[in-house]
Amino acid sequence: MKGWIKKAGILTGLIGLNSALEYTPRTLRNSPLLEPSLSTIGTGAQFEQRWFENQIDHFNDSDSRTFNQRYWINDRHYKGDDNPPIFLLEAGETDALVRMDALDRGIVNILSQATGGIAVVLEHRFYGDSLPFSNFTTDNLKYLSYNQTLQDSISFIENFSSVSPYSKTQQSKWITYGGSYAGARAAHLRKLFPDIVYGGIGSSAVTHAEDDYWRYFDMIRLHQDIACVSSINEAVRLVDLILDSPFSYPKDALKTMFGLQGLRDEDFADLITYPLAFIQSLNWDDAISSHKFQSFCQTLTEDSIKKRLLGYTVGSAPYALLRYGQWIQKNLSNKCPADLTPVECFGLPEAVSTEPSTMRAWGYQVCTQWGYFQGSPPATESDAYRHRVVSNRLNLPHTSSYCERDYGIVERPHIDDINKLGDFDTRFPRLAFIDGSADPWREATPHSSRARMRKDTLSQPSVLIKGGTHHWDENGWEDYTSEPKLIRRVHEEAIAFVTSWLEE
Ligand SMILES: *[C@@H]1O[C@H](CO)[C@@H](O)[C@H](O)[C@H]1NC(C)=O
Ligand SMILES: *[C@@H]1O[C@H](CO)[C@@H](O)[C@H](O)[C@H]1NC(C)=O
Ligand SMILES: *[C@@H]1O[C@H](CO)[C@@H](O)[C@H](O)[C@H]1NC(C)=O
Ligand SMILES: *[C@@H]1O[C@H](CO)[C@@H](O)[C@H](O)[C@H]1NC(C)=O
Ligand SMILES: CC(=O)N[C@H]1CO[C@H](CO)[C@@H](O)[C@@H]1O
């Protein structure tokens, strides 16, 4: 694998990682290529990078080791009054530079502007440059338990007025905000530490941890373009049929058609889920939205003479498969440098690196507490299974096998650590949940089809963005009043409920 790592630059940006929660084929997970690159996420240069010294172990008084946690402040709306409201954007499972746009133009800037407050982004331990250890061995990663990480934010809030340049903030009201995993954090911080955290907004907040999260892909089936979804389904069923063949010839031909010859069946099935991951990065703002899923759909469904001919003779599935293969070849396989084989580029590496990386950290959180292994629906979910958009090779034993391989973890994740904090029914005064109706993560949020209905009140707002995917309210425009109505209304509602909270 050495050659591949040396050429790490080549695939940078291939996956438009917003955060580690974005689905990543297992075969690409260990790749250093997935670290977000500064050219795609910006440098945050407009804000000064600051450091807070935090405890590595919050629960052991005789352990005095500390690490430096990174944060940034947007104070352009702060007029110098005593105790301004402070909006803490939890960066979550990513390099926090990814959140600089949200600090500059997004939700916390909008809320600070409306209230004369201060906006802060705090990087999460083990991500970006907030590293307690320079080696992510499983032993070191044990300090990445959820309770330790929540305590980081609490220590930060409690010490902010003494360590930051803003000393007149001892009595400030803190409101947490986060999207995705960070959304769950924002909600849990409010609920678990109500005297320290005045209010919270969980956007696409995954308050429900789940071992087998096959619903991720099923949300794609349920909410994306029907013609495209049914083409994917036809192609995938044909893939599974071919992979079931006892002979190697058809399987080899299939993989070659995708430019992925030599890959193991499971690695192949996993890798071709690649275009589906981009659903999560669809955004109302065209400038930052990913267009790869649409490009994939267009390729699969395009009308052509060939499509009609194949349709009349052997059915539409072979056409869908052919086009699927072409798209993967053009957009993924061909990115492999010419002097390397597909296996060298896309097969699982033999040795696992313990170097610090987003995937290494998030994978540990997944394997120990959160679950969210994404794959095919189980056959018992007959409707979802029949219409699956990913191969049935991607079952739970397969999708979670990296836990043992990469971390030596054999137990199932302790999802109860998370779910006992409220699960779908997490609620608290001054705690808001904002979700997208088509978000692949919706089934892990309080707006899941399995959750109790919620009333939308000023104290406990419950907002579902129609057609939205992942935390669409996090980003915004400098002048939010010029945003498209769908999003402007969410931002207006957030200003209204936050203003009312602050008046209480
Ligand atoms: C607490 O910290 C001390 C000093 O580092 C260490 O010797 C001890 O094993 C720690 N206890 C636990 C339970 O981790
Ligand atoms: C990280 O720890 C592992 C296991 O102890 C060790 O084999 C490896 O050499 C260490 N890597 C670095 C860069 O220190
Ligand atoms: C923190 O979480 C870890 C992992 O679940 C657990 O072992 C530990 O007992 C917890 N500590 C506290 C103080 O709750
Ligand atoms: C932060 O505040 C807490 C309680 O106010 C205090 O015990 C702790 O020592 C402080 N930590 C730092 C790093 O300043
Ligand atoms: C996003 C991307 O790179 N899309 C390309 C994938 O391949 C098709 C052709 O099949 C191109 O047209 C796209 O530009």
From TrEMBL:
GO biological process: proteolysis
InterPro entries: AB_hydrolase_fold, Peptidase_S28
Keywords: Glycoprotein, Hydrolase, Protease, Signal
Name recorded for this polypeptide: Peptidase S28
Protein family according to the UniProt entry: Belongs to the peptidase S28 family.
UniProt cross-references to SUPFAM superfamilies, sorted A to Z: alpha/beta-Hydrolases (SSF53474)
Signal peptide (residue range): 1-20
Pfam families registered for this protein in UniProt: Peptidase_S28
Species assigned in the record: Wallemia hederae
GO molecular function annotations of the record: dipeptidyl-peptidase activity; serine-type exopeptidase activity
